[in-house]
Amino acid sequence: MSIVDYLNLNPNFFLVSVFLLSLLVGSFLNVVIYRLPIMLKREWQSDCVTFLSDEFKSEKSSYHFPEAVNNETEPFNLSIPRSRCPACGHQITALENIPVISWLFLRAKCSQCGSAISIRYPIIELSTALLSVLVAYYFGVQWLTLALLFLTWALIALTMIDFDTQLLPDNITLPFLWLGLLISLLRISEVSLENSVIGAIAGYMSLWIVYQLFKLITGKEGMGFGDFKLLAVLGAWAGWQALPLILLLSALVGAVVGISLILFLGRDKNIPIPFGPYLAAAGFISLLWGKPIMHFYFNLVGL
Ligand SMILES: [Zn+2]
Question: What domain range includes position 44?
Answer without folding.
Answer: 3-105
